[in-house]
Amino acid sequence: MGSEGETVTLRKPRFLCLHGFRTSGEILKTQVTMKWPESVTQKLDLVYLDAPFPCQGKSEVEGIFDPPYFEWFQFNKEFTEYTNFNECLAYIEDYMIKNGPFDGLLGFSQGAILSAGLPGLQAQGVTFTKVPKIKFLIIVGGAKFRAASLIDKAYSTPIQCPSLHFLGETDFLKEYGKELLENCVDPVVIHHPKGHTIPRLDEKGLQIMESFIERIQKMVDEKEIKE
């Protein structure tokens, strides 16, 4: 902390951003910067990571966004069994160790499901034991894990950190996103009329998001000043 009369330069909240299934960090970056105004994106330090596994099938964004495409882990038709999940966790943690620290996670779709489940897994000592506690979440088109091996560990205690959730009126995951809210102590919700996508922010949504960012910025500032 600076001496009296000296300006203290405080940093923006830093988020690791996890993209959707069979897309990429670059695609998520494009979606966010196209849809959200600078009054939002310039207040956050957003770092976009590619998932560890090359796309193992057709991507739904083919013809819209250029490859390469990646996936965080694989799953069965019922979404109840996951393959390469532990490898995925190790990959993200290793990136956070080498490129952190990060304050929070921003996720879309498969990246949102991952992001929302990680605070609980970290609290249980299952993963992220070598990185600072996840303090904030921004969840777009998210849901809960459905693998039985993860449910008890990820949601055994409520998600304590401040979280912002986007629920789309025609999103096929909307009801699952509502279930996730029940596990959060402090959720803030932006409703939008679109489907499973990064939505544009209407006036009300923009106010909610800017208020959330202002709040977490104060929390980051307080921590920085104390240190």
TrEMBL record:
Q: Which Gene3D superfamilies does the record cross-reference, listed alphabetically?
A: alpha/beta hydrolase
The record's listing under InterPro entries reads: AB_hydrolase_fold, FSH-like_dom
Q: Which domain of life is it from?
A: Eukaryota
**Pfam families for the chain:** FSH1
The UniProt record lists the Serine hydrolase domain at 11-203
Q: What is this protein called?
A: Serine hydrolase domain-containing protein
Q: Which organism does this sequence originate in?
A: Castanea mollissima
